[in-house]
Structure formats: structure tokens, C-alpha cells
UniProtKB/TrEMBL annotation:
InterPro entries: Pirin, Pirin_C_dom, Pirin_N_dom, RmlC-like_jellyroll, RmlC_Cupin_sf. It comes from the Bacteria. Belongs to the pirin family. Residues 200-302 form the Pirin C-terminal domain. It comes from Cellulophaga baltica. Residues 55-138 form the Pirin N-terminal domain. This is Pirin.
Length: 331
């Protein structure tokens, strides 16, 4: 029996399995920044406010001056945002804020409802500003759909990275060879170790072999091969920009050919509940989606306490997190 269940091309967003809802990979080679923290380049020819076409190696997304995603609502799930290169400015309706990047991770539970913005400030005015990031949506079970929103920063310096001579594994969630990740959000599906939720960013050197350890329970597992040349798994040669659904009950040997290989792995016990989705809302029924839309129209999930929907922080702010209780952590 093959340990590979299927191989599929990576689109935008990436295909996921329960308990994950969505995963998107952003790789933008932004140029030098201007005084407004946007690109020091012409924006002509771009559909500002909805620019998802890769032009000159980068996109503006929903941003009109600074690339990114101005204020928008969420309900019923969690966002886990991993920024490997570049920076993300977070602001939300709880009054929480932060600038994170260069390996930091933000974990946000939308729960009963929150607005937030995610902008990508181009801080350097004399060198390019590359951005590499993942955003993962992790579902909440029905019992947790209406928990209080929660925001936390997992700083790069604190996240376990397990290294060997030819590989490194960044353990964002779950346990890797007895090395536990930082605590997830308290109401997360990942907070119960029995659910064996794992998010690992794996880097393997060329001309080496890496073994992906088996899971302890019956979970879904998807390996995303997003950068490299070729790998061989279970006798099958696979090229980059492919996802691989594998049998998590067996350890899997991966031979890396050509260039170094980079993977994201998502794993977890399925929630196995009905899913109703409409844009930024994920509930269990269409009636709950209608309720979410009505409540957002009436309450704006607490309103927007920032001067602009596309709020960015001061250029010299550095990496920081401001929590809803007013506590500020500066890195």
C-alpha cells in the first residue's frame, strides 16, 4: 500500500483537509518602499482595491497605497499567519495591534466575531522588500464558534526549531519528535492534544533524505512542496507547487534531489461537522451565516477604532504586539 493518497497542483488558495479550511501562500518580490510605506513604483495598470494579478513580481491585493488587506470581518474559525520574510501590520476591532515578521507567527481566534486588517508595509526605502507568508484557517467546532475573540503573537525567537545536519523543522503547532510547540489559542481545536493538530515548516537540504515521523492517531495530513527542484516519495517523483495527501499512520521517507526543498505540513483530527461558508464567515448552517451577516451589519463586531481601514503603524515602530488589555510587548 502506498503512503501517498493523492498528489495535486497548488492553486490559489491551496487545497486543505478538515480541520483546516483554507491555506494561502503569498510570495511577493516588492521593490523599495516610498514614504507612505507603499511600493516605490508606478501603480498604473493595476486594479487597485482588487489587485491579485502577479505583475512585476508582486501584487497590491486589496490595498490602494500599501499592499495588504484593509479591515474585514471574521467569525467562526481561527487564522494562523506565518511571515517568513517581510512584515505584516495587524490592527483589529479589539484594539489589539502588532507588527510581526521575519519568522514570527500570529494566532487569532475570530470566535463570535472580530474585524482586523493585515497590511504589508515596505519599510526599506533603499533595498527590495520581499514578502513570504502563509495564512492558514483552522476551523472551530460548533461548541467554540461563539467564544471570545483572542489574539496572540508567537515570536520567532521562541518557536522551537528542530535541526539536524540536513534539515530544520519549525514547530508552529503540535509536537515534533517530543518537541512541543508554543501553546495555541486556548479555545482552539489545537489546544486539545488528542486532536494532534500540527503545523510544521520543514526545510531539507539537497541530496539528502528526510523522514517525516508518523502520527500517533487517525489524522489528516497534507504536505505542501512549495519550493525546490524534485523529491522522491514512495518511488514517486514530485515537482514543486504540488500538495501531497499522505497516510499519517506511517513514517515517510523523502529524498531531495537538485535544490533544497521547502514544505509546509498541516495535520489534524477532523472535526467532522457540517460547514457553511460565506466569505469571511464559517459556521455550521446557512441560518448561522445569515445571522453572522446581520450581526456584522448591526454591530460591526465592535467597530473600528483605527483612523483608516488600511491602518499601518509608524515606520520606526519595530516588531511589537499590543494586546486588548493594553499590554505592549516590544521586540
Amino acid at each position: 500500500m502506498s503512503t501517498i493518497k493523492s498528489v495535486f497542483p497548488l492553486g490559489f488558495p491551496w487545497q486543505t483537509q478538515d480541520p483546516f479550511l483554507f491555506c494561502v501562500y503569498h510570495l511577493d518580490h516588492y521593490p523599495e518602499g516610498n514614504e507612505e510605506l507603499g511600493p516605490k513604483a508606478s501603480l498604473e495598470g493595476r486594479t487597485l482595491g482588487n489587485n491579485f494579478t502577479l505583475k512585476d513580481g508582486w501584487r497590491m491585493y486589496h490595498g490602494k497605497t500599501v499592499p495588504g488587506f484593509p479591515a474585514h470581518p471574521h467569525r467562526g474559525f481561527e487564522t494562523i499567519t506565518i511571515v517568513n520574510k517581510g512584515y505584516c501590520d495587524h490592527s483589529d476591532s479589539l484594539g489589539a495591534a502588532g507588527r510581526f515578521g521575519m519568522g514570527d507567527v500570529q494566532w487569532m481566534t475570530a470566535g463570535r466575531g472580530v474585524q482586523h486588517s493585515e497590511m504589508f508595509p515596505l519599510l526599506s526605502t533603499d533595498t527590495p522588500n520581499p514578502l513570504e507568508m502563509f495564512q492558514i484557517w483552522l476551523n472551530l467546532p460548533q461548541k467554540s464558534k461563539f467564544v471570545a475573540p483572542y489574539f496572540a503573537m508567537l515570536w520567532h525567537e521562541d518557536i522551537p526549531i528542530i535541526k539536524t545536519e540536513s534539515s530544520s523543522v519549525k514547530v508552529i503547532a503540535g509536537t515534533y519528535n517530543e518537541h512541543a510547540a508554543l501553546d495555541p489559542a486556548p479555545n482552539s481545536w489545537a489546544a486539545d492534544s488528542a486532536n494532534e493538530v500540527a503545523i510544521w515548516n520543514i526545510h531539507v537540504e539537497a541530496s539528502s533524505t528526510y523522514t517525516l515521523p508518523k502520527a500517533k492517531s487517525d489524522v489528516t495530513r497534507t504536505l505542501y512542496f512549495y519550493e525546490g527542484d524534485r523529491i522522491v516519495m514512495d518511488g514517486q517523483t514530485i515537482t514543486p507547487n504540488h500538495g501531497i495527501i499522505v497516510d499519517a499512520s506511517e513514517a515517510i521517507e523523502i529524498k531531495v534531489l537538485g535544490k533544497n526543498a521547502h514544505f509546509l505540513m498541516l495535520q489534524g483530527k477532523p472535526i467532522k461537522e457540517p460547514i457553511a461558508k460565506y466569505g469571511p464567515f464559517v459556521m455550521n448552517s446557512d441560518e448561522e451565516i445569515q445571522q453572522a451577516m446581520q450581526e456584522y451589519q448591526l454591530t460591526q463586531f465592535g467597530g473600528w477604532p483605527w483612523p483608516q481601514a488600511a491602518h499601518v503603524h509608524d515606520k520606526n515602530k519595530g516588531r511589537f504586539a499590543k494586546y486588548p488589555d493594553g499590554n505592549i510587548v516590544q521586540k
